[in-house]
Amino acid sequence: MAPRKQPTNVAEFPILDANGLYAGQIRGDGNCLFNALSDQLYGHQEEHKTLRDATIAHMRLESDFYRQYMIVQPVRRNPKRKTTVAPAPLMDLSHHTEEELQKQFDIHLDKMGQPGEWADNMEVSAFASALNVHVRLWQADFHYTFSPRIYYVLDGASGAVDDRPILNIAYHKWEHYSSVRNITGPHTGLPLVSTNILPSPSRKRSSVERDDVDSSIMRASKRRSPHPLFDSDSTPTCSESSSDESNGPQLSQSNTDELGTPEPEPALDPVPRPKLVLKLRCLKT
Fold first, then answer.
1. Are residues 228 and 177 in the same domain?
2. In 3D, which of 9, 24, 18 has the Cα closest to residue 187?
3. Residue pair 220/213 in contact by the 8 Å Cβ criterion
4. 145 and 90 co-located in one domain
5. What is the rounded average pLDDT of the residues 247-257?
6. Full-prediction pTM beyond 0.85?
7. Residues 114 and 205 in one domain
8. Which range, of 34-38, 136-140, 163-167, 224-228, averages the lowest pLDDT?
9. According to the UniProt entry, which residue ranges have a biased composition of type Low complexity (predicted)?
10. CATH of the domain at 65
11. Range of the domain at 134
12. Buried b / exposed e across 146-166, counting CB within 10 Å, b at 16+?
């Protein structure tokens, strides 16, 4: 009997579905990040405490690096997962001494070392370095990868590649991590995720991409002068700006009389004829 096809979370993760993947069920007991990572490494969720301890030990060893990301008097995520959004913390613009940062960092590690304490992306980054693996984090329509801080030396060998494992986890908008698996299985044991990543079919252009397109349009339409570009067919006769743009914008005097009343436009010649317009400066008398 063929293995049962698992739910694909299409609505929440279209990019996973486009790549033949889905976010598997992971316990939401506060250990969800390390549960998901344990499922990726061992095929089950039972090694979450071992992975948490290894991550915290690495962060203590590399405290000079990780404590620079600490916020003194931080506001963490809402631990009760209410439907109301917790108020965002105010930006901390004050200067803190190394002692203050280290104290806050030690408090953070003591708290993070307790089972059931929620972890965030800083712990994902530390885990990648502690275990010397890559962690690909999937969200609704994009993904990014946390790589180890340990440099990978290829020893100059031709064709050598970075063969460190890539773990795949998904982050739900309701603040939960899941382990990513193939839709076709296996649904238990090691996930064995292998894919050529495809973009999400519903992915919108990023703000950077939109800015690039908008700026190119602006560059194409931008002119040095507010007047139309001059050529043999559009140059206004007897206009001060026709031969000198350095004097700034000037009102054209070609189509008004002395009282400022616009003169009627001449009738268009049905037969197009070549014409020559000289660019001359009018002399005011």
1. no
2. 24
3. no
4. yes
5. 46
6. no
7. yes
8. 224-228
9. 231-246
10. 3.90.70.80
11. 14-211
12. bbbeeeeeeeeeeeeeeeeee
